[in-house]
């Protein structure tokens, strides 16, 4: 049996997909797999008033069972008529407090 480049590509593709499916099962959802921890609850979201063509949201989640000290998940979502893009960001307690401080400083410095 000849294992050419096609078999190697298919094998690699199945390995990548299989790894992601295991993460989805382990963390309970697609978003949980993206964050690397299950989502405890969604605290809330903030929408920007950018325009009618693009909707931008920032969703705040609490994370449970993270392998690191990451306890807060920020999900950045950009939606248009023909696209949907999401980007997860996990933060530790210290990183969250620093972000809060920076946001408060930005509001005060306006």
Q: What features would you describe in this structure?
A:
This protein has one domain. A hairpin with a 6-residue loop joins strand 1 and strand 2 (55-64). Strands 1-2-3-4 form a four-stranded antiparallel sheet. The termini are far apart. The protein is built from three helices and four strands. It is α+β, with helices and mostly antiparallel strands and 110 residues long. Helices cover 41% and strands 36% of the residues.
Brief characterization of the structure:
With 110 residues, the protein is of the alpha+beta class. It is 41% helix and 36% strand. It has one domain (5-108).
Summed up, the helix count is 3
Measured by DSSP, the beta-strand proportion falls in 35-45%
Query: What class do helices, strands and sheet pairing give?
Result: alpha+beta
Q: List segments where confidence is low: pLDDT < 50 over at least 5 consecutive residues.
A: none
Mean pLDDT across all residues, rounded?
Answer: 85
Strand order of the largest sheet: 1-2-3-4
Main sheet: strands, sense, barrel:
4 strands, antiparallel
Helix content: 40-55%
| Elements, N to C (H/E) | HHEEEEH
The domain tally reads 1
**Cα separation of the termini:** 69 Å
Over the alpha carbons, how many angstroms does the gyration radius reach? 19 Å
Q: Count every beta strand, where a strand is a DSSP E run of 2 or more residues.
A: 4
Q: What's the overall geometry?
A: extended
């Amino acid at each position: 049996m000849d294992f050419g480049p096609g078999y190697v590509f298919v094998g690699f593709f199945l390995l990548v997909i299989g790894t992601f499916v295991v993460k989805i099962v382990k963390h309970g959802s697609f978003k949980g797999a993206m964050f690397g921890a299950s989502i405890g609850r969604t605290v809330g979201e903030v929408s920007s008033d950018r325009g009618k063509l693009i909707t931008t949201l920032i969703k705040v989640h609490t994370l449970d069972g993270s392998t690191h000290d990451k306890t807060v998940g920020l999900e950045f979502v950009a939606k248009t008529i023909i696209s949907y893009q999401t980007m997860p960001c996990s933060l530790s307690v210290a990183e969250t407090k620093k972000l809060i401080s920076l946001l408060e400083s930005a509001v005060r410095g306006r």
